[in-house]
Amino acid sequence: MLPDFNTILKYYEMGGFVMPPLVVTGILLWYALSFRLVNVQRSKKGPRELIRLLKKDSIKPKTVTAKAAEFALQASKNASSRKQLKCILNEQFMHYRQEINQHRTMVRALVVIAPLLGLLGTIDGMIETFDSLGNMALFSQSGGIAGGISRALFTTQVGLAIAIPGVMIGRIVERKQNNIYRELDQIKDLVCVKKTESQE
User: Fold this and answer.
1) Per residue in 150-191, pLDDT tens?
2) Cα–Cα distance, 77 to 84 (Å, whole number)
3) Which of 24, 33, 115, 134 has the fewest beta carbons closer than 10 A?
4) Residue 6 counted as domain residue
5) Is residue 115 in a domain?
């Protein structure tokens, strides 16, 4: 059963001043991860099969690798030599690499920031706890010792709950990204080899 709005609001208020930045961090992290997941979608066909199908106009390029293969085939027709073709492909494929690399730095930064914000909430909660002990204010407006400990534990938990899935999904995305890099290199090599063969 999902918690109602009042329960969520109660937890939000319990987290103290670090909750707004934690929520923003979580939203930005999942936006960046979603963007990267869409960007690293791979074609179901391998580079060799992809080139063969594109030559026959059997498929429409939708993924980065398919678009790269289509561009490589077109560039191969226009280039006068393998050297010229390789220069054209190196320049264009760099753009494809930059495209699938978008928000990578943001994801890495946010998965570090989230637990640090949680730790900041922990420190704030412990300060409140010791203040309550020093003033003997066991039932202060913010909950005294119990409130301080609760906030300390809660913000740490929220920070880790944001960061851990972010790290796991980020690793999956980076693995897919590296596979696309390899496929781009394979496409470039295949097209350049075919260009050499056609000139012999």
Assistant:
1) 667 888 899 999 999 999 999 999 999 999 999 999 999 888
2) 11
3) 134
4) no
5) yes
Domain for residue 1, yes or no? no
Burial class (CB in 10 A: 0-12, 13-18, 19+), 12: middle
Please state the domain count of the chain: 1
HSE value, Cβ hemisphere, 13 Å, CA-based, for 12: 11
The answer to whether residue 109 sits within a structural domain is yes
Measured distance CA(118)–CA(43) in Å, rounded: 39
Cα distance from N-terminal residue to C-terminal residue, the chain:
70
Residue with tokens 């260009």: 195
Task: Give residue 117's domain range.
Answer: 18-199
The string of pLDDT tens digits covering residues 40-85 is 887 788 888 888 888 887 778 888 888 998 898 888 888 778 888 8
